[in-house]
């Protein structure tokens, strides 16, 4: 058994991690992948074929560079039940808040809440694909990744159209109270997920990557809360439309990364 360490500068979230997983999944020589997202490093445990592995990783255009290859005595690798349970938990939380935010966003007229709901849905897709990475077939992962990516893009484009309509039409004021309350609940949910990730103290298998991903969601939640306050302060819908636009861009960028998983 050999252990090869790669430095991948552009690997900064679960989408890139899943992209690497899918690229290497079909190689029989690869026995285990260990991701260190904060340090942008990937450790591959494999039996030979280092040139094929290196070519596969570098072909992703993420700036990958092989740091070292050495012998390893490690022969057993196990995905723990706790890690799988944690991923299911955060997936359920994110999907539940997608339903809550999209429904309250439509009722209250807040594009910020609608956009944030799509970000929650994007998270749920990522965690679902992460779960499929544990024992799932390559074809199934790619199929779901493709569906998830296109679905998110379609929803985000509809959101953009609605934002433009509201910019040029007669001003429609969102219910800022609903924006603030629901966003605070979503913030609490994301902080709970972040707490679970940190409590697990796991160094591998999507855990640290997912914790970083959830930290970004906390920032978005705070942005929607601030937008709600500004709507009330200026008596204008523009802060809501601006934060909605920003989050829709984030969602589309994430969807494009997910689509790469299906290639």
Describe this structure in words.
The chain is α+β, with helices and mostly antiparallel strands. The protein has helices at residues 14-24, 50-58, 81-108, 111-132, 138-168, 176-200, 207-234, 238-261; strands spanning 2-7, 30-36, 41-46, 65-71. The protein folds into 2 domains: 2-71, Alpha-Beta Plaits (2-Layer Sandwich), CATH 3.30.70.100; 81-261, no CATH class. The protein contains 8 helices and 4 strands; from the N terminus they run βαββαβαααααα. A 4-stranded antiparallel sheet has the order 2-3-1-4, with helices on one face. Helix 3 (81-108) runs antiparallel to helix 6 and helix 6 (176-200) packs antiparallel against helix 7. It starts with a strand and ends with a helix. The model has no long low-confidence stretch (mean pLDDT 80).
Briefly, what is this?
With 263 residues, the protein is α+β, with helices and mostly antiparallel strands.
